[in-house]
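In response to a reviewer's request, we include the raw inputs and outputs for one of the modeled complexes. The two entities were modeled together in a single run.
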Amino acid sequence: MAYNVLLVDDSVTVRAVMTKTLKIAQIPLGELFTAGNGKEALDVLKEKWVDLVITDLNMPEMTGFELVDAMFVHEQYKAIPVIVVTTEGSTTRIDDLKKKGVRGYVRKPFTPEQIGEMITQVMGA
Amino acid sequence: MSEQKKIRVLIVDDSAVVRQILGRELAKDSMIEVVATAPDPYVARDLVVQYKPDVLTLDIEMPRMDGLTFLRRLMHYFPLPVVIVSSLTQRGGSLAMEALSAGAVEVVCKPGSSYTVGDMVIEITEKIKAAACVRVAKKDDGAVSKETKHTEGFKRLSLSKTTNKVLAIGTSTGGTEALRKVLPTMPGNAPGIVIVQHMPEHFTKSFAQHLNEECEIDVKEAEDGDTVVPGRALIAPGNYHMLLQRSGAVYCVQVKQGPLVSRHRPSVDVLFKSVARYAGSNAVGVIMTGMGSDGASGLKEMRDAGARTVAQDENSCVVFGMPKEAIALGGAEFVVPLMGIAAKALELAQS
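The model returned the following structure tokens for the whole complex.
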């Protein structure tokens, strides 16, 4: 068994670091998809079966907030767990996201252990 | 489907016992090959990609990702025929209904007190074979609300004069969705309707309740002695036969047990033959999508007794079995696509 993960971040560097992190964190990783913003993420979701979305919030074109909103009204996507990884520190905005259904939140900078724990907690295995 | 090629089945169930028993029992059938089993949807997804099975059996109540969510996503990314395995509970029945509208083609129930493993194996084997014949279309994008789609393109019909006619409908695989297209178009003064849909016990009740919410006419699971009156549809309860009878000037139904007829209970043949006997030329018979031949000889008897008869056409059938047999026996006066069935039936009821 392995999880297909969609990584959404506008920074190529962050995506590369996160990819390495996921490998170090010993997550059973299936396919890994990446997207540079919310819009690209929705394009990936349309074509690919994704088990977990890890997304940044502040991105050009379509933000993580907008992505989360779009996912949670969608019949198929609303069940996909979302973890937000961001520098955003405002607790009200984070609480707002959690109310909407975002399952996990990790503050940047993060350690592989934090990511691993969060994924294990969210995926419930 | 060629005779030599086996139906490749993937079993998804969180119970190791069920996986083992089902795997072993299904493998005894020469037409079925169990390619893999999965304990949860995540493993199942990987195995679907790896083996590309012809049919998937899915336990609808599972931990972690529930079966319904998995099914919706499966229909979106890798559409294939799915047979739902569900418990006999109220919740199980209602989940099964949702699964059928999400794209599953058949439902079987788990063994319980009155339902042995042997019964279940016979039923699931049959349904896997039926499912293997089904063409599964990719489900529409989930962004559209599912409720708007059912009656789209089907406008509610009207009927000028109320008649003392009886409309009898028989269907199997694909029938639940077909009925969800036909019945909501029926006007409130439509002739009394009696329906046999092959489905396990208890599920027929949930099915009737769901339909009742979508229809102008009343839809209920039949109880022994219920009268057949305009504006009401009675669905034969799973595991019981339903027969039309006459009590004075009114029609009513008898619901009873008895042996399987044409390999089914309820059997369409049982219903149609009783309709031929008691309603004769006052009846309209409709046979719709389904595997096998149940109802074919019954429809012929109805037609011989003076009833007007309709069979669903090949193109609009999920499985063109029962209508095909009925046409071959000369039982079908008209062959009509699903879209036109309600209108045709009403027109014939008025003539």
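As requested, we also summarize the result in words. The interface with chain A takes residues 40, 42-43, 45-46, 64-65, 69, 72-73, 76-78, 141-143, 146 of chain B (CB under 8 Å). Chain B has eleven helices and 15 strands.
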